[in-house]
Every structure is written in structure tokens, then in C-alpha cells.
Amino acid sequence: MTICAALIVAAGRGQRFGGDLPKQYARLKGERLLRRTLRAFCGHPKVQRVVVAIHPEDAAIFAEVAAGFARVSAVHGGATRQDSVRLGLEALGADAPDLVLIHDGARPMVSAGLIDAVIAELSAGPGAADGVLPALAVIDTMKRLGADGRICETLSRENLVRAQTPQGFRFRAILEAHRKFAGESLTDDAAVLERAQGQVVTVPGDETNIKVTTMEDLARLAAVLTENRTGQGFDVHRFGPGDHVMLCGLKVPHSQGLIGHSDADVALHAGTDAILGAFGAGDIGQHFPPSDPRWRGAASDRFVRHAYDLLLERGGALIHLDFTIICERPKVAPHRAAMVASVARILSIDQSRVSVKATTTEGLGFTGRQEGIAAQAVATIRF
């Protein structure tokens, strides 16, 4: 099993930010930035350990921020970001992971999908790079200024990107590079590995993965979190032996059952993915792997409730959850009201926030041949 650790860099003083506290401890919608960052990594199923490089003076406030996160430990950072990363890597080295993700503590909106992409690229097999960074295209015209502040050159945007974190590395490679080039004031960890002739590749970054440097950045994040966001889910299960199907947590009599690792509630599976997708928290398979025997025969209301609880923990609200069930049989219309009530009960929300619809494919395809049932769901959320 590949062991992946995260190193969160949170030892800076944030002098450009202003305010009474360093930026990583500023509040966004009532919650400190660093706590949001920790949740993203502690809640990711592929990250086994989290080490945070903090300033020695921040021990008390960090203890408050990290409360409840069992896999988190702290190490004192250094005078520069590069020093802090090296010290964090040394702390991880006592029980060295295979991979390490290095992330800015003041990037609280990192998504599970972005973490997945970095880990997947590092784990691509023989020939995989030693380092991976999320990158965004440069879309504005680039100018170089002279010492007098006047424009002296227009730069080509071709092949230029903006680097983000988390940057992922093979642990031994980045540790050796940081040891070798300590004190050189390189601007990010990819640059350290590049200096050591290591190969670094990119994956697509995320525009909402904003690094807070100024109060204006914090305001931008607050605006993002205030917007409505949507997520979509889709699932299919085929028919097998049985005398009922589970739809929206309701037992619906039928001449066949649905086959699945859990109770095969195709609608709630789609609803789970819709909610998770709306705030970038991965998919149902990451949280409840079908290979895990714990979920054999499990009621799917546990899955959708888990997704909803994660949303609530991140300060979000579910505005609406809309299901479309696609099948020839059983007929959904006689059970629609009960399905709406069931979902509302599972999530402890008003029935007005739930919609259940049904359609057929006019006899076409696998649902038309009555080989199974498909469902899609759209979740609308607000932070």
C-alpha cells in the first residue's frame, strides 16, 4: 500500500495580510482558514498523515484549530518557507511515507478532486515524475518592468502557467533536494526539485483554490462561498433476484431486486455523488469503497447522510436535491410522495427541498429492456 502524507505550511507571519493574526488563522464564514485546509486533507481517504509546520508562538491557537483531527501533528517551522518545509519533511522522515503533498495553509478551498489528481499522477507507474504541481494557464498579457517602474518588455504567454499547491512528490526525492539546496530561497517546492534535476509535471489546477495573501483575497473567497453551487450524480444498477427495490430509501415491491454491494439504492447513490460533487469532495466510491466488506448490504441512507454531514461541517447548506429515476418498472408515480418524505427524513430537511421525478426511455436501451434502473440527481448547495 502506498503511504501518502500531507505537509501543511503554516508558519508564516503574513505581513501583507494585515490584521491581528497571521492569515492562516483568519476566519472565513466564521471558521479559521487553516482548519478548513486541515479538513480537506484529514477527510481524504488517500492521505494517512498530516504534519503542519507552525510558528513557535502559535502553539495555543493551532491546538484550537486542530482540535478533533486525530491524524494531525505539528512541527516548528523556520525563518523562511523553504526552511519550514525542510523541517516538516525531516519530521516525516522518522516514519517516511512514499509520497508527500506540500500545501499552503492559507489555501482553504483545495478540493478532493485536485488532491486525487496529484496523487494519481505521482502513482502513474513506471516512468512517473518525481513531482507534480497543479497549474493554471496564464490568460493575461505579461509585462516586465524596469527599475524605474516603466514597462520594458512584453512577455509571451505561451507555455507559461501559474503554479498552485498541493504539490506532490516522491518523499525521498524532495527531502534530498531540500537538504541539498537549503538556504537558496527558491519560491516553491517544485523549484527545489527542479534545481536538483528532478522531473516535475503538471495537472490542471482549480480557479477556486485561492491562496489568501491579502484581505481582498479573503473577500474573494467569501464571495465564492456565498454563491450557489451545483453537483450532479448518476448511477445504474441491474436487476437480479428479489421481491423489491430500494429507491430513495423506500422499499418498493417489485418482481425483481437490484444487484449491488450495498442495498443498491440507485437514487440515493446518485444523490450522494451529487452532494459530494457540489463541493468537490470526491465521489461515493472514495468514501465507501465497494471492496470494503463493511458496506456489504449497507443501507444507502448512510451514504447520502454522510455526504450531507460533510457539507454541513464545511459550513454549507443544501438548497435543493432533485432526483430523476429512469425505468420502465416499477412505476414510481404511486410512491413519489413517500420517496420525497423518505429523503427529507434521512437528511432532516423540509420536503420542499426534495424533488423526485421519473421517466422511461420509450422501450430503448437497457432500461427499456427492463434490465435495470438508472437515476440521476442534481444538488444545489450554498455556503
Keywords:
2 domains; 30% helix; Spore Coat Polysaccharide Biosynthesis Protein SpsA, Chain A; 60s Ribosomal Protein L30, Chain: A; alpha/beta; 12 helices; eight-stranded mixed beta sheet; 383 residues; single chain; five-stranded mixed beta sheet
List the topology elements.
Layout lengths: L3 E7 L16 E2 L2 E2 H10 L6 E6 L4 H7 L6 E5 L4 H13 L5 E6 L7 H11 L8 E7 L4 E4 L5 E5 L5 E3 L3 E4 H10 L8 H7 L4 E5 L10 H12 L1 E13 L3 E4 L2 E4 L3 E2 L7 H13 L5 H4 L13 H13 L3 E10 L9 H12 L6 E6 L5 H4 L3 E11 L1
Parallel strand pairs: 1-4, 1-6, 4-5, 7-12, 17-18
Antiparallel strand pairs: 2-3, 6-11, 7-10, 7-11, 8-9, 13-16, 13-19, 14-15, 17-19
Helix pairs in contact: 3-5, 5-6, 8-10
Q: Can you offer a commentary on this structure?
A:
By secondary structure, the chain is of the alpha/beta class. 30% of the residues lie in helices and 28% in strands. The chain is built from twelve helices and 19 strands. It has helices at 33-42, 59-65, 81-93, 112-122, 171-180, 189-195, 215-226, 266-278, 284-287, 301-313, 336-347, 365-368, and strands at residues 4-10, 27-28, 31-32, 49-54, 72-76, 99-104, 131-137, 142-145, 151-155, 161-163, 167-170, 200-204, 228-240, 244-247, 250-253, 257-258, 317-326, 354-359, 372-382. The strands form five sheets. Strands 1, 4, 5, 6, 7, 10, 11 and 12 form an eight-stranded mixed sheet that branches. It has a five-stranded mixed sheet with strand order 16-13-19-17-18. Strand 8 and strand 9 form a beta hairpin. The longest helix has 13 residues, at 81-93. The model has no long low-confidence stretch (mean pLDDT 93).
